[in-house]
Design goal:
- With 257 residues, this protein is α/β, with parallel strands linked by helices.
- It has one domain (22-62, 116-256): 3-Layer(bba) Sandwich (FAD/NAD(P)-binding domain).
- The protein contains 9 helices and 13 strands.
- Strands 1, 2, 6, 7, 8, 9, 11 and 12 form an 8-stranded mixed sheet that branches. Strands 3-5-4 form a 3-stranded antiparallel sheet. Strands 10-13 form a two-stranded parallel ribbon.
- The protein binds ligand 48F.
């Protein structure tokens, strides 16, 4: 029994990983925007994998605000809660609340059920840069990256890569700093996130969701970090709508390619 259990895990894991070495779309970061984007694209039939460096995907959604485990979603994004079968309560004419644990786990569950391959404990430490295009990701174990052990990574190719790493905009920063390129942003570079301004932050998250270099897209707080948008705190409609928009942009690009 001891060896059968190990064989089953090793065999299935490596089959899953081998199947994902050439992707249509690689999603970096399992917060709300990455989870929504991955689900939409998998539903359209793309081969999508999502990589999360922590043990559990979900990013900043589990903890609500200051660990008060409720989130707020504005009415414009309620249809996304319906789509992911997340229950919610009306607070007033514009705002609804949901349990952050139910909301986060439902996003993860429906992403997996839509066909997304989810890899937790894997960190993206670089991109593949071929013919002046972002063409994949460079992966390592999350704990290896965090402890800065000097161990070479593995590589996964992808037609599109989404930076959904939240506040650090990690993939955009690595791509810009290592390749001496001008990003498709206002400054040609990374502007950095601004302080909190809720309404503007929410609108900008969706507006800033964009392709910032051939093959590389940004969503959620990573989009605001790259384009110099405001942070907004514990309101999540913008993140969900940004996930949708990034899926639409990637779908358009892959369909036309
Ligand atoms: O930060 P995060 O939840 O991303 P988001 O979709 O949503 C932001 C909100 O949660 C919140 C907010 C709304 O009011 O402001 O902050 O923009 O999730 C980002 C995920 O990416 C993972 C990280 O652990 C988190 O779960 N991540 C970050 N860097 C890497 C990564 C990396 N290099 N490789 C893999 N995962």
């Amino acid at each position: 029994m001891e060896s059968i259990i190990s064989k089953a895990i090793v065999k299935n894991f490596f089959e899953k990983l081998e199947n994902c070495l050439e992707l249509d779309v690689a999603i970096v970061g399992g917060g709300p925007s990455g989870l929504v984007c991955s689900t939409e694209l998998a539903k359209k039939g793309y081969k999508v994998a999502l990589f999360e460096e922590d043990l559990a995907p979900g990013g900043g959604m589990w903890g609500g605000a200051m660990m008060f485990n409720e989130i707020v979603v504005q009415k414009e994004a309620i249809q996304i809660l319906d789509e992911f079968k997340i229950s919610y309560q009306k607070f007033d004419d514009n705002y609804y609340t949901a349990d952050s644990v139910e909301a986060t786990s439902s996003l993860i569950y429906h992403s997996k059920k839509a066909g997304v391959k989810i890899f937790n404990c894997i960190s993206i430490e670089d991109v593949v840069f071929l013919n002046n295009k972002v063409s994949g990701i460079v992966i390592n174990w999350g704990p290896v990256s965090k402890s800065k052990m000097h161990i070479d990574p593995l590589i996964i190719t992808a037609k599109a890569v989404l930076d959904a790493t939240g506040h650090p905009s990690e993939i955009a920063k690595i791509t810009a700093s290592k390749n001496d390129i001008q990003l498709l942003t206002e400054t040609g570079n990374i502007s950095g996130e601004k302080s909190l301004s809720m309404e503007k932050g929410e609108q900008e998250t969706v507006k800033n969701t964009s392709m910032i270099y051939p093959g590389l897209y940004v969503s959620g707080m990573a989009a605001n970090g790259v384009h110099g948008g405001f942070r907004m705190g514990p309101i999540f409609g913008g993140m969900l709508l940004s996930g949708k928009k990034s899926a639409d942009l990637i779908h358009q690009a892959l369909k036309d390619a």
